[in-house]
C-alpha cells in the first residue's frame, strides 16, 4: 500500500495573524505610564498607612510591607501585561503592548523583563533614567517609537481605539462655463431663399392686346372700328404669342433697355463655433523620503524586492531599503484607477500600510484600495511617501 507524503501546508505550523493597529503616539504612552505610576504609588501609600495604623508603626515593618506590596504588584502587572498586553493606564488610553513581529501577546517572561527595565529607569534619579528611555523612543530609526526596553523585549505599543473612517474626497473636475458673449457673436444660419427664373427678353416685351380686352367693360367700341355682334356662348380665341424676334441690337441706347434684376446676394454662410480646448488631465507625482520622485504612469509596486504577479502590467518597481526589516518584499501597490484617481492598496504586508491625511492616520485593510488626494502621506513600515497633484 502506497503512502502519500503529507501536504506541505499540513506540516507548516499556523502563523499567527499580525495586528494591523497603528503605532501609538508618545503623548498617549506617557499618559498611560503616568496613570500606572499614580495608581501604583497610591496603592503602596495605602499599604504603608494601613500597616502603620493597624499592625505596627515601626519603620522597618512599614518598609517591609511596602516592599512586599511592590514586588507583588510588579508580578501581577507583569502577568496581566504578558497575557493581555494591557495595564490600567493602557486600558484607559486605548493602548496595548504586542510582539513586534507577530502582533500577539508577548508572554509573562518578556513582560517581567520589560517591567523591570521601566522600574529601574524610574528610580529617583531626578528623571534622568526615564528621560533617557524616552529619548531612545523618540530617536527610533524604525519610526515606530520603540524605546530601548521595546527593542530588548521585541515589543511595540499600538493604538487599539476604533479607527475613525475618513471619507475619500472626490476630486471634481473643472466645470464647463457657457460663454454667452461668444454665443451672441456666432452668425445665425442662412435662410434658404427659393430662386425664381429670371425674366427673358421676350417676356420683357409688352404684347399688344386686342381692343376689346383693353376697353373697360360697358364702354362702346373704339373709334374707327365697327361694332361686332357677339355670338351667344362663344369664347374669344386664345391669344397667341408672336414669334420670337431677334435680340436687342447693340445700338439700342441703354435707357431703352429693360431694367435688370439686381444680382442675388448670397446669405452669409454659417460657420461652426470654435472648439474649446479640452482640459488637460492632471498628473500625479510621488515623493519618497529618500529623495526619489516621479510622475505616476501606471501601476507601481513598493517593497524591499517587489515582484509583479503573472500577467500583471507594472509601470514602476520601487525597491525600498528598510533598517528594521519592517517593509515586506512586495509591501503595497498604487496607481491610477479607471476614473483617473490614484488608489493605494496593501498587499498583505507584515507591518501594514498607513494612510495619513491632514494629521489623521488610519491603517489600510489588506486587499482593499483607498483613494488618495493631494497632500496625502502613505507609510510603508519605516518608509513613507507623499503624493501631490500637478496641473
Automatic annotation (TrEMBL):
InterPro entries: FHA_dom, Pra-immunoreactive, RDD, SMAD_FHA_dom_sf
Chief site of localization: membrane
Localization in the cell: Cell membrane
Transmembrane segments: 38-56, 62-83, 116-138
Biased composition (Low complexity): 222-238
Record keywords, A-Z: Cell membrane, Membrane, Phosphoprotein, Transmembrane, Transmembrane helix
Pfam annotation, one family: RDD
Start-end of Basic and acidic residues biased regions: 195-204
Membrane topology reported for the UniProt record: Multi-pass membrane protein
Region (Disordered): 191-280
Compositional bias (Pro residues): 239-262
UniProt keyword annotation of DNA damage present: no
Tree of life domain: Bacteria
Location of the FHA domain: 300-360
One Gene Ontology cellular component: plasma membrane
SUPFAM superfamilies, alphabetized: SMAD/FHA domain
Protein name in UniProt: FHA domain-containing protein
Protein's organism: Nocardioides oleivorans
